Amino acid sequence: MGNKVKSIGLIGLGMVAGVAASFQFSAIAQKTTGTPLPLEELRQLSDVFGLIKTDYVENVDDKKLLTEAISGMVASLDPHSVYLDKKAFREMRETVAGKFVGVGVEVALEDGYIKVVSPIEDTPAFKAGVKAGDVITRIDGTLIKGMSLDESVKKMRGEPRSKVSITISRKDEDKPLVFNMLREEIRVQSVKAKIIEPGYAWVRISQFQEPTVEDMAKKITALYQQDPNIKGLVLDLRNDPGGVVPGAIGVSAAFLPKDSVIVSTNGQLQSSKETFYGRKEFYAPAAKNDPLAKLPAALKDVPMVVLVNGGSASASEIVAGALQDYKRATVIGQQTFGKGSVQTLRQLTADTAVKLTTARYYTPQNRSIQALGIKPDLLVDETAEGDGLNRLRVREADLQKHLGNDKDPQADAVKRDVPDEEQALAALAKKTKPVEFGSKDDFQLEQALNHFKGLPVKLSK
User: Fold this and answer.
1) Is 186 helix (H, G, I), strand (E, B) or coil?
2) Is the N end or the C end of the chain the one with fewer CB atoms within 10 Å?
């Protein structure tokens, strides 16, 4: 199988095959790339397979049994490694391209349940009122405790306009909440931009996709045409769960000097030991023209703020880390999610693949973000009253089997200042409404503007 495996790219957006009860061990060993196989354990796997086929109460399909074995093996590694069957692989490619059919939630596995990291803006889930921190307990009435993350995501996806029911447990509600939605093709507009007041621009990236760099360049160019004298730009990465690494490189490169180091990676493979620069070959290798070539020259020097929170993860942490290391921007908000690992899609067949964690990534100053995140230069709560729903977010360090931080072994020991009592959390969620980013009621954005203007910034208590 090894010579059929093909790497198809780095992913930043969260399962062994056989044909009979008797494995051809020597043949398998000859096909490996120099790594000896644990033959005794493989024999045990073969024995268990045979026992199930002969002794289980009813017949089990061979393909299902072996696929589940693959799924379990990969999923046991870390929260972000997963086996992708035909449907899941197709959906992954659609997501990277900026579209998929579903309800529009970013999720993570916690204690056997699926927790909402963030609803994607302007999707059925977002419109229905699903919130970050919600725990999904049932999908179409089926209890999902113990279900793999991949399997639960597949159940939420389907055909356009098909119905799906999601049952949610929310800390501030006594009874489960049931959301009945119609699946839609989610075309995530990953970039939004506007002049929020004369002289100040706001650019929001909700997810890093293949079109993100080009879309951002077009929107920023339009902003400068609208107001050529922009004196402050806010790059809003709050609740951005990540995505493709080239998108993060391109966004960073737009604001940094030519050929700057953006991010580096390190893993077992030689191909995982790489440094990425702010060059077209790294952020738009397939494009005929450089999408950043015609950006206004003033963009390299305009004062910047990057807004982040606990939902800012992976590729968004690459951008925040790079701009912070070069002191190109002031990072404002709350500590980020802490996903400092890179996943690579390894294609197995024409229709299946493994999304495997292959490297850790590091900021230009060689900082590891894994299980730690980016610490803002100015800690600012979500609202004037406190950090709101951001305090309820699950983060990388909270996930079971997460990778450790090789630069800071004590990263997992960093405790968030959150109440221990369930009642306190419930009361907090009950009185707090989700923030509409970019609105006049956006407290963190208001503090970013104060920073530009030299006015006092209200820091976290």
Assistant:
1) strand
2) C
Evaluate if residue 362 carries a pLDDT over 90.
yes
Name the strand (E) or helix (H) holding 248.
helix 245-255
Kind and range of the H or E run holding 83: strand 82-84
Q: Which residues participate in catalysis according to the annotation? A: 314, 325, 339
Burial label for 112, CB within 10 Å (0-12, 13-18, 19+), is: exposed
Q: What is the DSSP string of 46-81?
A: HHHHHHHHHHSSS---HHHHHHHHHHHHHHTT-TT-
Q: What b/e readout covers 26-49, taking b as 16+ CB neighbours within 10 angstroms? A: eebeeeeeeeeeeeeebeebbeeb
DSSP 101-149: EE--EEEEEETTEEEEEEEPTTSHHHHHT--TT-EEEEETTEE-TT--H
How many angstroms separate the CA atoms of 117 and 240, rounded?
10
Q: What span, in angstroms and rounded, lies between the C-alpha atoms of 458 and 29?
A: 62
Short-list 357, 322, 317, 364, CA closest to 337: 317
- Give the pLDDT confidence of 213-272 residue by residue, as tens digits: 999 999 999 999 999 999 999 999 999 989 889 999 999 999 999 999 999 999 998 989
Q: Whole-model pTM above 0.85? A: no
Domains of the chain are 99-187 (2.30.42.10), 191-453 (3.90.226.10)
Pairwise CA distance, residues 216 & 295, whole Å? 10
The Cα–Cα gap between 238 and 309 comes to 5
Question: 3-class SS at 216?
Answer: helix
H/E stretch holding 195: strand 191-197
